[in-house]
Amino acid sequence: MSGIQKLRDMIDASGRIVFFGGAGVSTESGIPDFRSVDGLYHQTYRYPPEVILSHEFFMTHTEEFYEFYRAKMLALDAQPNAAHKKLAEWEHEGKLTAVVTQNIDGLHQKAGSKNVLELHGSVYRNHCMNCGKSYDVKRIAEGEGIPRCSCGGVIKPEVVLYGEPLDNGTVERSIQNISQADMLVIGGTSLAVYPAAGLIDYYRGDRLVLINQSPTQYDHNVDLLLQEKIGSVFSEV
Q1: How far is it, in rounded angstroms, from Cα 163 to Cα 167?
Q2: CB-CB contact of 116 with 140 (8 Å)
Q3: DSSP 73
Q4: pTM of this prediction?
Q5: Among 55, 120, 127, 220, which one carries the catalytic annotation?
Q6: Each residue of 91-112: pLDDT tens digit?
């Protein structure tokens, strides 16, 4: 039996699917992956991206943070690919209960998914650090320099930067959905980023699927491994 057919059979037998995804889900929509060979971490900047995207750098070099953020982190014209669309379809059919994502690009919602748990936040939500007023992403994308609130405070993206904790509520809802799932599909992630990657340990079922092009430390612990592009896999199921 082919891997795709086995995946189809697993999906048919499941009614509480949870999808856990990473950067590889977005790369097929043209959004660069940080850790791939040609990703952001392998390009040259004045500071390494992991430094720029840290809480400390945001607080001390805010203008330089925004210069990088506008150029490299906002991909507002990107469109959902086959994976995003299939997941939204499963949710609409009542087969999928949640998407747990490490991505911040909002593509799952663009595709129509409703229950999306964004572990690392979203570029679409921004708030004033002084008064708490909310701003949409256009306020960031279309401005220059440091975006400021009408009260004069600095506007910050609701994106989890290095050195910042994950949102407790989002983590708790992710754990609840994963622990209650009868099928967990992991896609487009190296499972190297913690604490997010540790959430999959809460899955207790026997339909654990991993779809990722490159090897991961979990490859031998899953019930089905597909080392392929996630978009091509989802377009076949």
Answers
A1: 13
A2: no
A3: I
A4: 0.93
A5: 120
A6: 999 999 999 999 999 999 999 9
